[in-house]
Amino acid sequence: MFQLCRTNIPVLSYRCVRHCSTPTIAQTRYRYPSLDDVENLENYRPGGFHPVSIGDLFAGGRYKVLHKLGNGGSSTVWLAQDQHRREQLRSLVTLKVMSAEESSKDLAGKIAAKYTPQEVNKFSGSLNHPGKNLLVIMDHFLHQGPNGYHLCLISPFAGPSMAESPGRVSGSKRLRGDLARKVTKQLAAAVELLHSARVIHGDLTPSNVLCQVSDAAHKYDVYQTFGNPETEEVVTIDDSPPGPHAPSQIVAPIDFSRLSHSLLKEDIFLIDFGQSFFADRPPPDNIPATPLQYLSPEAFFDLKLSFASDVWALACTIFEIRAGSPLFDPFFSSGTVILKQVVETLGRFPDPRWSAWEERLVWFDEAGAPKPDDEEEEEETLLPAVQSSLHHKLSEIGEQDDAPHAYEGKMIEEVGTHLDEAEVNLLADLLEKMLRYNPQDRISMSEVVQHPWFAYNNDSGPCLH
Asked: What is this structure's pTM?
């Protein structure tokens, strides 16, 4: 999960930067909170987020809010307890509260989209292919508040995402090798199932891959496990009362690093079908909402999402889960810098895309090779281009590991562990086939799940033939 710098300078989204000729910026009303990873307070307005507080009840008192799980561009997400199942296992649930604006857009279609995993599961029965790694929606309802009507979605409680802990705080910042291969195989199988049902996910990132939790996690006291919710008063710029449209306090998300690894299953859920669609029914004027570092070239340049763009995004996600760091570093949040890293790693774009990308001239010659050092120094080029490759990046895994703050648990790879040459060759082969520039040249998901890298083990792993 990425956060914006703490500043009152408005930040334009990728969508506005690339597609809005005269973007409008709402006037700032609230002081930026000091808490990390919280939602933009300016979204608390008519049509925006619903103000949720700890202890609030939803659906006629059935769901009680216990803690905060996170937020997205169009929703806040909460840990709640199903009061109807309070004495049973699995009474903890995830409550996603959509903004009023999002809830008003094609409500029937939006609910149908959220039920995509159930529809796919019905299809999977005929394939003998269970969709156990797709997170299903258990319940949905509308909730009226001061900012409008909000679609609320109930799903099983799950653990941290692959973009968070376990494994992203200190130490090696990655899952141990056999577990990384296991969960990415589950993820690939889930995507294959979607594609078999003619569904394009549209937003494959590590943030949308969650660890499953064991039944035992439901037995523990939430506040003993995660601590009491950390809150901060909502303050306006002019010190006027926030009013009914905003909560009185902002709540920090749960610190999943406090959740014992013994309560996490070595299995994953694929979540968030808000950008998903059936291949024969693409939404009109669809604009990719995926972070730039997971976008395929055709999604970036042409706004085209397809089965092949899912394959590209999955390749980036597989690399990140295995390496503990992104394939293309989003630190500067610049599409141009992401494209520079893509060319450094995969080579020159085909024409006419290469000639259309004018910024290439800053770093590369016409063959796609980085400019010589003396030429870049003479031109005072920022962030000089450095030629790399998938093989090189995989070989570097383990070299930049930090010393862990504490024991990271059995799920995490030991600091300084490198991939052996056999695994590097296997994974580089898989990723190269998934990251081909021409969408038609990328392998299909049925080919991805059959790749020998997933079956590799350090003792007697399979080899490429």
From this structure: 0.84
